[in-house]
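Backbone shapes recur. Consider a single case.
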Amino acid sequence: MDINLLVKITSRAWSLTILARIHRGTPARQAALLADTGAGRTAFAASLKHLIDLGMLERNPGHGHPLRPEYRLTAIGEKAAAMADRIKAIAPETSLLRRSWTVPVLAVSGTPKHYSQVKGALGPITDRALSQSLKQLHDARWIEREINTHTTPPRVSYCAVGPGRQIYRAAGLEAQG
């Protein structure tokens, strides 16, 4: 999976959770998923529609029978669901994973990178969104912030650590990171 697709998937709060739940075996029916995720109806519906628009999920053409799921994963959705399940297994109950830029920032921070390198790897991220994400991840101890005072001016680098490092590995972008 490439970083652009990861950015698109995580742009809705409940997308990773929905994919992970389907991968774990929750019936792919709207009511069952809504109850299992604990999301609000509006946010859940927006995330579900978003996954369909991205081609991760599709309506099941055989739906109508009580035992058939309403939705099913596509081929690309299967890969994304497996990745989402690995990520959710690391930090299952944190709201930090529902933030748009958490997983993409961690996915490109496997090796020490300067702010401009992280921003360049993520494309459409704004300075404010990146700064807030880095601060929240640093506060949660998922990213380490190191200041190199041997250069003029001093340079700051960021690198995923602890659960952030595990999420970096689970995202499967090591070749790009």
Remarks:
- The beta strands are 57-59, 71-73, 113-114, 143-148, 155-160.
- The chain has a mean pLDDT of 90.
